[in-house]
Amino acid sequence: MAARRISSLLSRAVYASSSIGPASLLLSRGRGSVRGNGIKKFSTAAATEELIIPPVQISYTKHLINGQFVDAASGKTFPAHDPRSGEVIAHVAEGDAEDINRAVSAARKAFDEGPWPKMSPYERSRILLRFADLVEKHSDELAALETWNNGKPYEQAAKSELPLFVRLFHYYAGWADKIHGLTVPADGDHHVQTLHEPIGVAGQIIPWNFPLIMFAWKVGPALACGNTIVLKTAEQTPLTALYVAKLFHEAGLPPGVLNVVSGYGPTAGAALASHMDVDKLAFTGSTDTGKIVLELAARSNLKPVTLELGGKSPFIVCEDGDIDKAVELAHFALFFNQGQCCCAGSRTFVHERVYDEFLEKSKKRALRRVVGDPFKKGVEQGPQIDEEQFQKVLRYIRSGIDSNATLECGGGRLGNKGYFVEPTVFSDVKDDMLIAQDEIFGPVQSILKFKDIDEVIKRANATRYGLAAGVFTKNINTANTLTRALRAGTVWVNCFDVFDAAIPFGGYKMSGIGREKGIYSLNNYLQVKAVVTPLKNPAWL
Ligand code: ADP
Predict the structure, then answer these.
(1) Which of 63, 65, 410, 499 could form a cystine bridge with 422, CB 3.0-4.6 A?
(2) Which residues cross the membrane (predicted)?
(3) Is 234 in the pocket of ligand 1 (CB under 6 A)?
């Protein structure tokens, strides 16, 4: 296992100058590079301040099964990378069917024989709270590890994602002792009650774009309801889940309740989805893989499945609002997290009356976007996650150009190391172009023109996806009309990407099945049992 302090990594950091002393934890000034339009976009002035990085060490690279870190059954490992450079930062146990078997047996035993499902809900709640406190204590280190392995801006990880992670576990700790059934008025002859019981062993497969947040969305409700878990992380980002799973055990979680297996989708992921002893499956990822896991679940033991999949969310800018604010919000809706959000506002529909001004300002905003080393203060955009995604994004940009959309800015790679993509804006985008239909998952904004509300409703809904939508208007009638007409699981009005723990999230159409977060997430992890007792003992008893 390659445990390394980030300080040593930073002395070789891609876009930091070489003035870092060996013991220094400071990132220093980056070298800006000037590209087209005379705009300095890479490590720009806004990003030259130094940022102290907390010391972070990669300590956990093995599977966590039954409370112990263990090697893969096969002894194999796979590399985890730093997307700033593509360098290997750790070798992680590579799970396959045998590791999943071992993890499922541990989770099964912990469910059938262990204390967790039978523990008083108050005790469960206290363990979740203790865990949240521990994460809060280690949050600088966790944010640094998340950035190191994922490439997202450190400030985003530290200031929004870690606090949201903690909030999610506080929220689910609050639910643990408030989950109960009903007394049902039945036929007058029977006392009928419902028991809300945990389902059993939950299999959870998560993606790489928000490794910690996805962990929290899935693990929080499953544990609050008393289930046990086998979680498979994405092969690109295995590190932070292992770290927090370790903290969970420090907080008093019994062994076997939460097992974390690293590995690839078609091996470890498929083994989990098709396992006969897994009682429920929750998946977040692409729509294509969602179809595969749904089929695996159906063909094995018909386990219930929740899916949170792709999106092609419309962001609708009406003619009545403040254009500067609309530009900023639409920019955020698309470019946040390097554009690697399933709900990204990736079709920016703009009313024809304000289209030209909006376009000009959006282009300027994209050119001002600060791209660079995600550990540097002021950096808004880090690298894409890996070579595969990076190439995919560049292919979509090529397809936009080939289909005669107008490339307003960007369109290429930044630097010559790592997976940095120029913030890219296309105008004159038509509904049937690939860039308006497919999920690009990168920093590529497509701007489309519309004339009236009826037209934009039809066009916004003309997609196989239905995860989210954004509406920008001051007019309450327009807002009401759009929020009701858009076929999407979330509609953000004059805001975007608001993700509180209590707000349900999930998709219409091919964006998924079911809802996560909020009260709605609990049903995914509960069985309802009806218990029927005669009000009077029958004569024969
Ligand atoms: P992406 O294409 O963005 O990597 P995926 O949907 O392929 O998204 O991956 C999301 C998660 O699904 C990851 O944890 C990945 O390992 C897993 N996965 C990929 N293929 C399969 C599969 N055939 N069966 C089960 N899980 C899979």
Answers:
(1) 410
(2) none
(3) yes
